[in-house]
Every structure is written in C-alpha cells, then in structure tokens.
Specification:
By secondary structure, the protein is mostly helical. The chain has 14 helices and no strands.
Length: about 350
C-alpha cells in the first residue's frame, strides 16, 4: 500500500512538472508572437496609437472594472441561495486577483480559479467553493455563446460580416457549444461515474478515484443543488455574464473611436464576439498572450481596417488587463498580510 502511494505521489509530481513546462513553453511562445507582431507593425506606430488614449484610459479601466464587477455579482447570485452569504466587495476583489493570476502567470486560467477556491475558504468549504466556481464558469461560457450569436447575427443582418470570417465564426460557435454541452453533461451525469468509466482502466487513476469517491460524490450533489436554482435566478446570472461581455464591446468602441476608426456599435460587438470565440478555444494558452492580440489583427484586417489598428486595440486592452493585474496582486498581498 505504501509503495502504491509513493508511486502515486511520484507520478503526480511528474505530471505537474510536465504541465508546468507545457504552460511555460506556450506562455513564452505567445510573448514571442506578440513581439513579432509589434516588430512587423512598427513599434513607433503602435506607441503613437497608444498615446492617443491619454486620459481616456481611466474610462477604459472603469469599463474593465464594470466587467469584473458584473461577474462578481453573478458569482454571488450563484452562492447566496444555498451557501453562507459572501460579501460582494470580497468576491469582487477575488475576481480581480483571479484575473491577475490568469493574466500574468503561465497557468492557462487554472491558476486563477484555484486562487478563487483558496481565498473563499474564509466563508465556504472547499467543496462549496469549487461547486460555485464550476457553475459560475458554466454560466460564463453560456453567456459567451449568447454574446457571440448576437454579434454574428447583427453583423450578418447589417452586411458587415466579412466572408473570410464566416467559417472561423461557425467553427468557434460549434466547438464552444460542443464543449459546454459536454461540460454540463459531465457535471449532471456524475463526475465520478464518467471518470471511472473512461479512465478507470488506468491503475493509478482508478486508485485515486476510489480513494476520493466520497468527496467527488459530495461535490456532485452540491453541483446539482446549485443547478436547481429558480429559473429567474439562473436567467439573472446568465444575463449578468452576457452584460459583462457587452461592456467589452463598449470598450472596443471607445478605443477604436480614439484611434480615429469610425466603427459602429454593431461592428465593435462583432469584433469582440469573434475575439471571445478565439480566446475561448485557445483557453489553454496562458493569458492568451499573443493569441488575443493576433486575433484582433486578423479580425480587423478581414474587416478592411489597417492591421496595426487591430494590434493597437489588442495592446491597449492588454495594458488595461495589466493595470488590473497590478491591482489584483496588491489585493492578494493585503489578503495574505491579514492572514498572518
């Protein structure tokens, strides 16, 4: 038994090390691709475009804050019916910290969600926290799909949908829809049974699942409990995540107007819908470094705008994310100092 446990720990450490190497590699590949884009477009041109933002950067940060605040409200609505109440301001700070982790560290969004679970132990058990985060991410993905459908539909109706982007848009919608369908089915049909059925033939995983059977099944019950929320509350959570995406379209509209690109709100909505789809598909790329900026270049160029405008838009949004990353790490340091 001790030998099996030792092998299990040793294998887990090897898997974690491989995962970290994989994440770090893609993190730096993304940074290298971003540097290449800046080199191709010209650093001077990009800096000149960024300088046009000026004091309007405050407005951009306010819009980014509204996005995170709406997500924090949605998260609270998921928790408040079945678990101990968690202060909204606390959840807002945790969302900022989570976003900071996902932006800066090569953790492919997993680090931020793990941090959310860790910090909310102040009010919730680990299983309650994990269940709330899983359900919150599910609603966030569903809200993204609705947002993409709206953006694509309005763009098509307004005859501003580039033909070259039709296939990528359809692929994004199909892949993400299949992903969320499987994700929800995985939760509702029983995590333990599915894992055991598909991976139970591997001795190491089989032993791990058997040792954690009770904990996993307790998590399953909590997930089902949260999904039994009244439809009004479920609609509210979905609507809040959808509204958060809308603020992203407003942000793009403001930035592009500052760059002297007279786009309409529908065009801005379409741009962010496409970017949301690409970022979601490449969620394993830490912070979407290079991917998000490249997506902006690809989309705006397909719409007939200069590629450096797309890169400038992506970088200005990245600077806003870095601002909140700095704020998030300050919050995290403060949280740690209070615990000591």
């Amino acid at each position: 038994m001790n030998n099996h446990r030792h092998l299990s720990i040793e294998q887990t450490e090897k898997n974690n090390k491989f995962h970290q190497i994989f994440q770090t590699l893609f993190f730096f590949l993304g940074l290298a691709f971003l540097a290449y884009l800046i080199y191709r477009m010209g650093l001077g041109t990009i800096l000149q475009n960024i300088s046009r933002v000026g004091p309007w950067f405050t407005v951009i940060c306010v819009l980014g804050g509204i996005w995170l605040f709406l997500q924090a409200i949605a998260w609270r609505e998921i928790l408040r019916r079945d678990f101990q109440p968690v202060p909204l301001w606390f959840l807002f700070k945790v969302k900022i910290i989570s976003d900071a982790i996902n932006t800066i560290l090569p953790s492919a969004n997993l680090g931020g969600e793990t941090t959310r679970a860790y910090l909310t132990r102040r009010y919730l058990s680990l299983k309650e926290s994990l269940a709330g985060i899983i359900v919150d991410k599910t609603y966030e993905l569903a809200g993204s799909i609705l947002f993409m459908i709206l953006g694509f539909t309005l763009a098509f109706a307004g005859s501003i949908f580039p033909k070259s982007l039709i296939l990528p848009a359809i692929l994004c919608l199909v892949i993400i829809s299949i992903g969320i369908f499987l994700f929800i089915g995985f939760q509702l049909r029983g995590i333990y049974k599915i894992l055991l059925r598909f991976f139970g033939f591997i001795p190491l995983i089989n032993r791990f699942l058997l040792s954690k059977e009770t904990q996993i099944q307790n998590l399953e019950q909590l997930l089902k409990k949260l999904y039994r929320a009244p439809w009004q509350r479920a609609s509210l959570v979905l609507g809040l995540h959808f509204a958060a995406r809308i603020t992203g379209a407003v942000e793009a509209l403001v930035i592009l107007r500052l760059l002297d690109i007279p786009v309409s709100f529908i065009e801005a909505l379409f741009i962010i819908a496409m970017v949301a789809g690409i970022n979601t598909i490449f969620f394993l790329i830490p912070g979407q470094w290079g991917i998000a900026e490249g997506a902006h270049v690809f989309i705006l160029q397909a719409m007939g705008f200069p590629p450096e405008i797309g890169l400038s838009l992506g970088i200005i949004k990245r600077i806003r994310k870095l601002f909140f990353a700095g704020l998030g790490f300050l919050f995290l340091l403060f949280q740690q100092s209070r615990r000591q």
